[in-house]
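Changelog excerpt

This revision adds worked examples to the README so contributors can see how folded entries look when concatenated. The first example is reproduced verbatim below.
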Amino acid sequence: MVKAPQFVDDHMRTIIVGVADFKFTTDPSVCLATYALGSCLGITFHDETRRIGGLLHAMLPTAQLHKEQKIRETMFLDTGIPKALNTLVRAGAKKQDIRCKVFGGAQLMATDNFFRIGSKNIDMFYKISQELELDVVAWEVSGRINRTIKLNNQTGEVIVKIPTKPEFLR
């Protein structure tokens, strides 16, 4: 029997991050979690020195197609990532100390190139991470599987759960 990695103790509170949502914490005894990332991207942000962590669950690459509509910034990578960074810096994080990890971007159904949202999300994240000079320390993306992730704000470690496989740390 494979034992799951040590990650959280029984005293850690978990905050759930929904689809098209961003949450952060300055409490080192808190985990941030999001479930069943398919084509969406789950991006963790963590300032280890200040124990400030955030989790963005973005659905789509860009808000540019929705210019005439009122949008939810966290639904899109190009608006959600800057919003997340600004929020974390206002909470006391230093941008140069924030480490990012990215998860998801799967292609769960066979579709043509137009609907390959997972790969479009990965491409957009890569572009934005280069433009914003993000320190991306882990990638767990692509494939045909969904992922559930939990960010431990004490350590910055992320536990990843894939159906039918043991949990692992990133």
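The second example, added in the same revision:
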Amino acid sequence: MKITRDGTTELGPYYTGIADSVSPCDPNAKMKCCSFTPYSYKETFKWALKMLILPGGIAVAIIILLIFELYDNVVIRILTSVFSTITTFLIYLYSREKLLKEYHRIRNYEILEPGKEHELNIIKNPMLSIGFVGDIMMMNEHELVFDTPIKEFFKAVPLIIGNLEGIMPEQNNKFAKQSHIEKILEQLASLLKYNNKWLLCTSNNHSVDFGNKKFFESTKKTQNPKDEIKEKFNAFGRYDVPKVFVEKKLCISTATEWSNQKCWDCTSQFEDSKLDSYYCCDDDVKFNILYPHWGFENERYTRRKIQKKAEELLTCKSQEIPEDKKKKWDLIFGHHPHTRQPVIAVEDMLKKPDGTRLLDNQNKEIIVKKLVAFSGGNFTSGAKWVRRKKHIHGIIMRCKIGPLDKNSDYYALGKLRWENTWNVKDGKKKTVEIGIGIATRTRIYILLIGIATLIIALLPRILELFP
């Protein structure tokens, strides 16, 4: 499989042949030493509140309040007031997220369920199979392992696309920054079979946490790793490589909506004017894929404005320009929220360059179904504390692309399948497995802890009955 920067230039020689830092990337640009989120102050405040939404915290607070009712003194009354306030606030945050989830619920699109083979369009002679995963987060000291069903899922997929969050390698791992040890590529390569390859996105909010020069060096090492896995990786997402061509017929573009740093001109960016330039209009290109770093962290729902943006990118419904000038993407697979979000199908009516509807042999309008996965969640995660249970869930997907049966000049998605995944911890090892995750098990643990806490608190009163 030939992957190029512009249809002819292969990525390996291109990255090797240019300077470490070129305009507009200033190698001496100062970077923030610590940054939690890339958002505005208002969105950062919302982000902090979402981190407090832990149902277990509400349960523990309520249990403590019940225990306090057994005692009557000044200290307990003060503590009761404090915990009542905390409990009310936590319940408010939890209820608010539930209401937002309902408000932003997918209403106007077909939601695709996991674990099923979906045929969005009837195609003939599939041109290519493509695989997708979400964020590849740093593993810390954990060893990354892939379960056999994961390997089987991708075994017939020649190209897998994933987001390498942060840079690689960087030994000086600072607070609130993402960096990988070089071994991550060897671990990712263990997922591949036969002639599979990785296409890793390097455009995300952590890309330039360690500066522009480190970002350039990391991209080169991602593209050209050690000899035994040298042909297994390709990288894109730098400002000069926002897209790649696969066999000249398929174009894959990436861009980030966010950065934790002010100086991030050397990454491909999610702006309307730039997205237009990332779209491939070449006559040979039959299919355009967008792999954006967008949305908001820790949200399991997709905001309405993002739903509308996705539909606009796929259909260009609101653009008052000639049909042959519209830049309609064919597939969107997003990342950044670190949580799983819905996978939906969006219908688009095919039209001729003059704007009239395209008809099939039976004089019926040709409607093609396109796809958007709003967030692939986390494919891998080495989180150890608060996020160790929240950020271990993801989505994997594979799909076939080929000429539409009703009009072979147009390429579309054929059969596709997606699955939920999660990271299972076993000592120093983390295994990526297919499955829903640990939500149910977590609630059981919280319940048991609550019961144990209540028994311990009541024990002194019980003992008072026995002199």
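Reviewer comment on example two: The mean pLDDT is 87. The CA atoms of residues 215 and 417 lie 34 Å apart.
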